[in-house]
Amino acid sequence: xxxxxxxxxxxxxxxxxxxxxxxxxxxxxxxxxxxxxxxxxxxxxxxxxxxxxxxxxxxxxxxxxxxxxxxxxxxxxxxxxxxxxxxxxxxxxxxxxxxxxxxxxxxxxxxxxxxxxxxxxxxxxxxxxxxxxxxxxxxxxxxxxxxxxxxxxxxxxxxxxxxxxxxxxxxxxxxxxxxxxxxxxxxxxxxxxxxxxxxxxxxxxxxxxxxxx
Length: 213
Hints:
This protein is mainly α. Helix 6 runs antiparallel to helix 10 (178-204) and helix 8 packs antiparallel against helix 9 (153-172). It has helices at 2-23, 33-37, 45-48, 50-55, 58-62, 67-93, 111-123, 133-148, 153-172, 178-204, 208-212. Helices cover 70% and strands 0% of the residues.
C-alpha cells in the first residue's frame, strides 16, 4: 500500500510543482502580519524534516500486526491519496508562491541547517502553498497512530506532540503561510469526518470474512 501511495502521489506532486513553477502565477497573497512577525528559527528545519524520517515510516511500526490493522491501514492509504489529490488540484486552481522563504539567509546560519534548506529547495519549488501537505499527510498518519497506540499513552501523545511541533515548524522555517496550516487542518478534518471515520465504524461492525467478500 505504501508503494502504491508513492507511485500515485509522487509523480502528481512533482508534476504539479513543476507546472506551477514554470507558470509562475500567484492568484492570491495570503500573507498576514503574523506571518511576517513569526521569527525564522533555522534549527526547526530538523523538525520540519520529521515528515520524511518519522511520519512516513510511522504506519509501518504503529500498525497492529493483525488482520484488522491491515484493513485499517488500507483506509489510511485511501485517505492519504484523497488528501494528496485534493491538495494538488488546489495548487493548480489557486496558486500562491511562498516567497517568505526568500527572507532566509543561508550564509548566516549553521552549515548543517543551511544544507538542509538547500536540499529542500532543490526538490521543492515554492508553489505548493495551501493546503500544506506537510500538515495534512503527517496529520493523517498521526491520527491513525494515536488510534493504534490507544493503550500506549507515551507513544500516542508523543506522536501528537511531534506533529504539533512539525506544524509550527512550517512557519518558523518560512516554508508556509498561516493560511496553509489552517486549510490543511480543515482538509484533514473533512477527510477524517466524512471518509475515514464512517469507514472505520463500518469495519467495527463487520467480521473480516465479510469485509474480504
